[in-house]
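Form 12-C: Joint structure prediction
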Amino acid sequence: MTQTPDTRQPTGPQDSTSVREVDVVVIGAGFSGMYALYRLQSSSLSVIGFEAGDGVGGTWYWNRYPGARVDIESMQYSYSFDDALQQEWQWPEHFSAQPDLEAYANHVADRFDIRDMIQFSTRVTQLTFDEGSDRWHVLTDQGDRVTARWVIAATGSLDATNVPDWPGLDDFEGDWYHTSKWPKDGVDFTGKRVGLIGTGSTGIQVTPVVAEQAGHLTVFQRTPNFSVPSLNRPLEPDYVEDWRQNYSDRRKEMRGQPLLTMSTGTGRSMWDYTPEEREQIMERAWRSRNGFELVRCFNDVSTDIKANDVLAEFVRTKIRAIVSEPDVAELLCPKTYPIGAKRICVDTGYFESFNRENVTLVDVHTDPITGLTPQGLATTAATYELDAIILATGFDAMTGAMERMDITGVGGVRLQDKWGEGPTTYLGMVVSGFPNLFMVHGPHSPSVRAQMIMGGELQVDWILDVIDRLEDTQVSRLDTTPEWEQMWLQEVDTAADRTLLGQANSWFVGANIPGKPRVFMIYSGGFDQYYRHCTDAIDNDFRGFELSNRREPIGDPTTT
Ligand code: NA7
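Section 2 - Result
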């Protein structure tokens, strides 16, 4: 896999002896990191942003695989902080493709002069807390040494790639690609025998596009997924105008919603309706072009297994109607977990792809992959000759990005060790023993269980409000305690227990990574509730936090 070097940014290694001092380091220039930098522009704090990629956009910079597209409506999946921006930006389609999202990120970076605040092609490799000065010492892979009073890790929920530990990967004589590290120049699969492993949101988006190009596409499926047709199309001018005229009210409404999106559901129980009425409502939702809103057409689908079964069977019936070969259709029907317990996918012709002559589905649940060979891939049942392999195998989600940085907090404790049995946080944003370090979309926050651009804005607003208040009162250290982490863990578990989310082996519970502790990693009580917890904590005299001031001269623990 190759990445094209970016010549736009001067990012060479720094003089390894010089240590830069700033007030705030922001890690990551995805949508949340960019918003943090934008907000910090107007503060008196000095700031530097580090970004591993050579451009802005985060998830939408890295995930440039064929078919990459967001599963939330474009008019909603955008920043809300600036009305002029939302009035002027023109989304081409109802569900935006990766190039449009990346273009939007670049537009925002230029429009608000954010780019100069970021050092690109620079990965933060080490964070060490200096207890003497209450500062973080930050090292990068470019040799930068920076100290900061505050660190905002906007490193994303889905950044650390999961490449399964199969024997033979290095011996494979063809090319292999992980979808989230896709070459910038694209890949030409014309006439090739391509293997695609993984049928999550990503694999489901890749399949129809690569099927059009490849000589033959073999899809290796371990677990089938529920997917709804996006019915994507160009945005109609009247629709856009309507949104523009009502943006302010709609954003307000979205902020009060659990998923930070406009709800199109009935808001009522499935059992309030006759079977015929239910069928009509589900059919309307299937054709509604509102993506995963299907799971919200009744308010008990995510909590009542019987209601869930009815909707799941509705989708299975759709799959059986689309896929002409009954055995293949049956294999594509999810039956082992409730609908919505894994994030439901939104596709463009996924199930239809299996009606093509050049697409084959292979069940690697029954016959698992045993490894790669020089010529292709082997399962316990057969071998497959392939010219190229696409890994749509997902991420070491939620904790991976943080754990892959070497983070050492108070008393020399490493974050990886502290999280050995699963992550602990307070409000999904801070970790006890790791003072002055904030995470955006971190474990135990709503993360992907809400519209992530607006969720990121709200978390960043909260973080900067905290920093502002502490700066005013000369507090140099903000920490939380293990007791408050346990309280929040309980809150996360209680919210999850009210739903059916725990019944799937998904990355929500870390089940996709062998050996990862199985704990619920996402706050699923709704962003509206979540934010109430966050603001209440500040309003109640920083409930759950320990504040202190022990600012002393700066040492440099990385040199000792
Ligand atoms: P996901 O949803 O984690 O999907 C990864 C897929 O890869 C899934 O089908 C996995 O099967 C499969 N997988 C992973 N490891 C293996 C091995 N060892 N063998 C066979 N198959 C494997 O990642 P995505 O990138 O699709 O989507 C991530 C999020 O992005 C998504 O939820 C949206 O929020 C956007 P499994 O289901 O674990 O059996």
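Section 3 - Comments
The chain has 15 helices and 20 strands. The CA atoms of residues 427 and 481 lie 12 Å apart.
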